[in-house]
Task: inverse folding
C-alpha cells in the first residue's frame, strides 16, 4: 500500500506519474500541509506546472489516532464530488476530482489556491461578510434540493461515519465520566457542564434527537458544514471536506452552520438572515434542537474549537443552547 508521507517527495512523484497525474519529467518543488485537517492525511504538492491536493484516509482519525474511522470515507467523499459537478450551483463551490485511487484510499483534488479556512471567525472581532454567508446558504439550498432522493446510492448512506459523528455529537459530550478533563481546557468548565450531564431527562431528549439524526432522510448533506470546511480564496468562498456526507435531514447542515455563527459571536441580525437566504421549508423546532446540541458539544465535547470566549460567555452559550434543545 502506498503511504502518503511529506518526507518522501520522490516516492510521491513516482506515484503521481504512475497515474499520469503529472508528466514523466515533472518534479515536485514543494510539499506542504495545506491546513489543520482533522480526519485525513492531506498534502499540497506543487510542481512547475500544477498544484494538487492529495488526501489519504487511514482506519483512524488523523488528529486523534486512538479513534477508529472507516478508511472507505474517502470513497464516499470522492463520490460526493463526482455527483455535485452535475449541478452548477454546487460544482463551482467545490474542488474538482483529478484522480481517485480506491485501493490506496487516496483522493487527488484540484488545489483552490492560496487560501485559509474560516476558523479565524472564532477569534475576537472577526466577522463573515454578508455575501460570503449568502453564498454558503445558497450552496446548502442547492445541495439539499438538487439531489433530493428517497432511494439514494448506498455509498451516500455513510453509516459508519454517521455513527462516529453521532457518538461525538449526541453521546460522548453528555456522559458524566468520559475521560475528558474540561478544566484542562478552561478552568471552571467542568462545573458549568455538570448540570447538563447529570440531568437524565435532558439527556433523554438529546438521545431522541440523536436517533433521528441516525435515520435516513431525503436530502444529501455535506455533514460537517462548519468554518473549518469553508475556504476563503481569491475566487470567493469555497466548500471542502464532505467525508461525513449522507442522506439525512436538511436541518442538520443548517443547524451546524447556525451553531457556529453563535459560537463565533456573529450578530443576531446576520444569523437571522440564514433562513431567508436558504429559502426552503424546514422543521424549525428540530433545527433549534440540533443547533443547541452542536453548540453544547463544541463547548463540552472532544471536538474543541479555538474559541476566544470567557467562562461567563460559555455559561451563557450553554444556557442558550439548553433552551433551544428543550423548547
Result:
Amino acid at each position: 500500500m502506498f503511504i502518503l508521507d511529506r518526507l518522501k517527495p520522490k516516492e510521491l512523484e513516482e506515484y503521481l506519474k504512475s497515474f499520469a497525474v503529472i508528466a514523466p519529467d515533472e518534479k515536485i518543488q514543494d510539499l506542504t500541509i495545506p491546513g489543520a485537517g482533522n480526519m485525513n492525511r492531506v498534502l499540497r504538492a506543487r510542481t512547475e506546472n500544477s498544484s494538487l491536493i492529495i488526501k489519504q484516509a487511514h482506519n483512524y482519525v488523523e488528529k486523534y489516532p486512538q479513534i477508529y474511522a472507516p478508511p472507505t470515507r474517502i470513497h464516499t467523499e470522492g463520490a460526493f464530488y463526482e455527483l455535485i459537478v452535475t449541478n452548477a450551483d454546487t460544482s463551482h463551490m467545490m474542488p474538482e476530482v483529478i484522480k481517485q485511487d480506491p485501493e490506496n484510499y487516496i483522493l487527488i483534488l484540484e488545489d483552490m489556491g492560496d487560501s485559509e479556512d474560516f476558523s479565524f471567525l472564532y477569534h475576537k472581532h472577526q466577522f463573515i461578510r454578508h455575501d460570503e454567508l449568502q453564498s454558503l446558504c445558497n450552496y446548502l439550498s442547492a445541495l439539499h434540493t438538487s439531489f433530493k432522493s428517497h432511494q439514494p446510492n448506498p455509498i451516500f448512506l455513510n453509516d459508519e461515519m454517521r455513527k462516529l459523528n453521532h457518538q461525538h455529537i449526541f453521546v460522548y459530550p453528555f456522559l458524566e465520566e468520559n475521560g475528558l478533563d474540561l478544566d484542562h481546557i478552561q478552568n471552571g468548565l467542568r462545573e458549568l457542564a455538570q448540570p447538563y450531564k447529570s440531568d437524565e431527562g435532558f439527556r433523554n431528549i438529546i438521545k431522541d434527537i440523536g436517533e433521528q439524526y441516525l435515520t435516513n432522510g431525503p436530502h444529501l448533506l455535506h455533514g460537517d458544514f462548519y468554518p473549518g470546511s469553508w475556504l476563503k480564496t481569491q475566487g470567493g468562498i469555497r466548500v471542502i471536506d464532505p467525508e461525513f456526507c449522507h442522506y439525512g435531514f436538511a436541518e442538520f447542515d443548517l443547524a451546524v452552520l447556525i451553531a457556529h455563527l453563535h459560537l463565533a459571536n456573529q450578530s443576531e441580525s446576520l444569523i437571522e438572515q440564514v433562513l431567508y437566504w436558504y429559502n426552503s421549508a424546514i422543521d424549525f423546532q428540530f433545527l433549534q434542537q440540533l443547533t443547541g446540541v452542536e453548540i453544547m458539544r463544541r463547548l463540552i465535547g472532544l471536538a474543541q474549537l479555538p474559541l476566544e470566549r470567557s467562562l461567563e460567555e460559555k455559561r451563557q452559550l450553554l444556557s442558550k443552547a439548553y433552551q433551544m434543545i428543550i423548547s
